[in-house]
Design brief:
Chain lengths: ~290, ~80
Amino acid sequence: MPISYFQGAMLGLLQGVSELFPVSSLGHSVILPRLVGWHIHQNDKFFITFLVATHLATAIVLLLFFRRDWWRILKGVGRSLRDRGIAPDDADAKLGWLLVVGTIPAGILGLLLQDKLRTVFASAQSAAIFLFLNGFLLYGAELLRRRAPQAAVDDDTRIARRVSWRGAFLIGAAQALALIPGFSRSGATMGGGLLVGLSHKDAARFAFLLATPIIGAAAVLKLPELAGSSGNGVRGPAAVGALCAAVTAYLAVRFLMRFFETNTLTPFAVYCAVAGAACALTFAFS
Amino acid sequence: MRPMDRRRLLVLAAIVAGIALIAIAAIYWAEPARSLPSFFPGHQAGSGHHHVKHGIASFLVGLACFVFAWFNTGKKQTPAA
């Protein structure tokens, strides 16, 4: 068996947390096996198949967590299509189309570049260096963020008012950074949200809504691999990993939505810089 | 150019681009990499690989073009963001 149940559980727990925390799940999935001496490489077919299961679990958890929001957003998008326009007071429709505009560049860049970037930046050493840089990216977003006055309206209305179409496109494109192991998808989107004037809580909410279709679609596209021959010997550990990822993803999203009501990205920036530097030095001298 | 003419031109361009992109998506799904026109990204002589992902990307952008045209041919104006 290329991956044991224990390894599957550990990687699943790590994936669920690090996918939503702005600390790069892919980076951690590359670094951890090297740190503990497991013979798991991110370009191994069985590992990619394993990741499909954990990503799918994370996407399902996000979808269920924000299910009421998604239902309102879908109804808003339907209304706008029927009326051939977005009513000025229809925040759900505006948010829905902002998510579409943000998903298009991320989806296209992901579809076209994912395999190439994975091959080029496959080593744990490069993931550690990019994790270090991710810390600076998060801290930079904190330094440069716009402190816009927060109106006392609901979350979705605030996001719909603050984020422009161009802003949504750029935030979506920034997600492509996460194709490089070490850079965080949620970090890039939260950072982008802060730069366009969202509060930490709203930036996190927008990042999680934006992440759901991308993570889900990436997993669904690769599902045939899990069902096919490359899933042989991996399905059991992948199921355990997916279950573990689902539990930690749920706890992570609950925690982060409260955490960002009063806190910033700085603790994650410090963690990424310190952990990235420590791992890079460890790998360089080992 | 008057704003109305400009808008119509944009809609027309979006529809043409949408049709072209969905046709390109169909080519990506139907033809192996060796049979793709040489100016297509992903063309590779002798390869039997189907670039399904390129097709999906092309299809989605084509769909986005149609949505843009749909909104811009409605009676109501989409408010500026």
